[in-house]
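Name: ABC transporter ATP-binding protein
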Amino acid sequence: MAKITLDNLAHSYLPNPASEEDYALKELNHDWQDGAAYALLGASGCGKSTLLNIISGLLQPSQGRILFDGHDVTHAPTTERNIAQVFQFPVVYDTMTVRDNLAFPLRNRGRDEAYVAERVQEIARMIGMEDMLRRKARGLTADAKQKISLGRGMVRQDVNALLFDEPLTVIDPHMKWELRTQLKSLHRDFGHTMIYVTHDQTEALTFADKVVVMHDGRVVQIGTPEELFEQPEHTFVGYFIGSPGMNVIPARIEGDKAIVNGTEIELGHAYRPQEGKLEIGVRPEYARLSQAEGLPVKVRRVEDVGRHKVVRADFFGHDINIIAGEDDHVGADMNRVTFDADHVNVYADDWRVAPSERTTPAGEAA
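Structure predicted for ABC transporter ATP-binding protein:
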């Protein structure tokens, strides 16, 4: 296990990058704590795999350094970094049995056969392949081969870090849940530093201690699932996390009020004057339909998803989503929406603005 430090790190695939836009991975400084489980989350092309491949040594960064426990490994080959990496598509030895595929990393490091046999049996049980150990890998399904790849990545207990690059893409949905559970169990039992790349928010939020959200080559927020949900630091985080994502509406900010098309919206905090593109962001969970107050909206449709309803509405060309309870009545006269003031965030040029102070509701002591 190791603490992984990214120092002034950036990367461009161009030979002579001239501006920030030329970088696939924009400047990053961060410590991956020893023994923590991280998820790199973002849309395709945002830089997730580039960052993972730099950490593993498959790619040399254009600038900056990678340190493992304070030791500079920027130019060290992958073999010297003592990491295990599992890729999006299965990489197995077709001519070997499942047992020999799982045993290969241990035998390659000279472990005795008694330990190899015990560890292979344990991993085979974790990935549900105990009854296939004698079979050749050739001819197995893609998801079976990927389980072998996962098992081979997990079989060593002495690695500095385990890196996973969208490893469950070819796995069926039920097995995805099973394997995520096993990875969490592995982390809990052995405390490996784990970094898991995915574009699936469910995978990220259920796997990781901390989620690293990337957008356009930049890390826009690192936080717990609760932090990402309650206080998205960038409008992309609000949009990408949640289903539906956060409502983002242009507004003018005046102290503890937001003015949206002439309608005042109470904010839970006061804000200093801001410049640039100003917006408010509020989760659909904190929006409510009303008959008499709030923003005027036109309800377009109501989607009953079983546990709740998703109300899709329009506000002067802006989509607004509201989550209502399964038993809540949505009447034709409910054409306004209100927001929970304590859960309205303010954004300037897409970045969250910190409030200046907490407002005091009428009737309460300051």
